[in-house]
Amino acid sequence: MNGPTLRELAVQGLSSVERGYDLLAPKFDATPFRTPDQILAATADALGTHGRFERGLDLCTGTGAGLGFLADLTTAPPTGVDFSAGMLAQARKAHPDADLVRADARALPFDAAYDLVVSFGALGHFLPEERPALFDGIHRALRPGGVFALPLGRAPKPTHPAYWLLSGFDLVMRARNAVWRPKFVMYYRTHPWSALCADLTAAGFVVETTPMPGVGELIVARRPPG
């Protein structure tokens, strides 16, 4: 499948987040934005040390890259949630047995329903001031003792070209959002580990990390039992 053209990416980038992903959905899996299989496999290996789970939720599932991963870790069919109807349509084609829900991740419609929640590559779509509502909703969606698993790649150092590439992307995005509406929120350098840990702890999670060799680390945030 051919990826999007530069014109299609430009149209997406000048749209809202929801509309942009609706437009990109049919070609999303041919872009570098899809979660790499290496990260999915490393996350599965790291979570394997925490046992098997009954029900799992893939937050901001997109076209469903995380749904197959969840199916191997849970006994019940996985659930995916996203607010882009276009992305969910693609996920439904690839994972017809999954339960797919259209909802805003900042207002999840679940209450103590899942043992495991995962999210891949979506944090950049949430501003720092939106994380408390996001993490509160995830905490509420988990059963007591449930786990929120959040893989984080290694942050590049200033001596690495990727550091300046990501910083430059964020700068361009801030300039775009200052002069263009609707905004398209996607930033790479707004969620350092220390800030995530503080926000997760404030939401009531007990936070630990598990190394993922060659990839980064997995944040394992557990809703305390009882």
Automatic annotation (TrEMBL):
Keywords, ordered alphabetically: Methyltransferase, Transferase
GO BP: methylation
Record keyword Cell cycle present: no
Segments forming domain Methyltransferase: 57-146
Pfam families per the UniProt record, alphabetical: Methyltransf_25
InterPro entries in UniProt: Methyltransf_25, SAM-dependent_MTases_sf
Organism annotation: Nocardioides albertanoniae
Protein name: Methyltransferase family protein
Gene Ontology MF: a single term: methyltransferase activity
